[in-house]
Design a protein that fits this description.
single chain, alpha+beta, four-stranded antiparallel sheet, two-stranded parallel sheet, globular, 8 strands
């Protein structure tokens, strides 16, 4: 990486934070307690077609604000940022087990996603692969705190590979949730990918409208490392199409734009 590109990356990321998600490397870090069917994208953006590992250089200097953050299939990533004041208006507490008992922010999801999650958890229970929620909705304030924590812990370049800058986290949409086995083991850790629960999600998540958002082999497209625990609700029809075509949400939007 050149000195110029590194300087640009550092300045852009810190400007976002101070003006102040994604998933994160370890959702067990303590967090503060305090139109739907049409694909929506801010504008066309280029993504790399090369598969492999994520790169911190994929974090753009100026993300574009999404036009309809309430749309179920909304694309939120390093190139598409939520409005500064965005908070879903229909957040509820899904009736599913979590790795904690408190009714706090990260237990919430948007109503449609919460209803679908209850059905997914019920099916997993019935098929002998019980799940538990780890972290769902996350406010801008919480994501800012988490991202800053990871920058202090691992440095900016490393943090950008697994944590979203404030405003670019899927968790802020209320449509994403990190899950693990019901015993809480391997929560937000790579070992979850070796569990029966992870394989069940690969085979069945789309049936309930969810996708494995940061899939293996898509790192250079999504900009993040593989996260088998990170589920994103997009609706049954789109989830099944993405699964059938084996494509990431970014690839779906790119192909949709190309077809116009």
């Amino acid at each position: 990486m050149s000195k110029i590109s590194m300087t640009t990356m550092l300045l852009s990321a810190f400007l976002l934070v101070t003006s102040g998600c994604s998933h994160d490397k370890n959702s067990m870090v303590k967090e503060p307690t305090t139109e739907k069917d049409k694909p929506v994208q801010a504008e066309k953006s280029d993504t790399s077609s090369t598969k492999g590992t994520a790169s911190a250089e994929q974090n753009p200097a100026v993300p574009v604000t999404v036009m309809d953050p309430d749309a179920i299939p909304v694309l939120v990533n390093k190139e598409n940022i939520l409005p500064d004041d965005y908070k879903p208006s229909d957040l509820v507490y899904p009736d599913v087990r979590f790795t904690f008992t408190e009714k706090i922010e990260k237990r919430m999801m948007r109503k449609e996603a919460a209803d679908a999650l209850e059905l997914l958890f019920q099916a997993a229970d019935e098929q002998g692969v019980p799940l538990a929620g780890v972290s769902a909705y996350r406010s801008l304030k919480t994501q800012t705190s988490l991202f800053n924590h990871y920058v202090e812990k691992d440095g900016l370049e490393a943090a950008l590979l697994y944590s979203a800058t404030p405003g670019t986290s899927e968790h802020q949409t209320g449509l994403a949730i990190d899950v693990t086995s019901s015993d809480g083991s391997c929560a937000a850790e790579d070992c979850f990918g070796e569990t029966d629960q992870a394989q069940w999600l690969i085979d069945n998540a789309a049936t309930y409208g969810f996708i494995i958002r940061y899939d293996e082999g898509k790192e250079s497209i999504t900009g993040y490392k593989h996260e088998p625990w990170h589920l994103r609700y997009v609706g049954k029809e789109l989830a099944q199409e993405l699964a059938d075509r084996d494509i990431a949400l970014e690839e779906y939007y790119q192909s949709s734009l190309a077809a116009k």
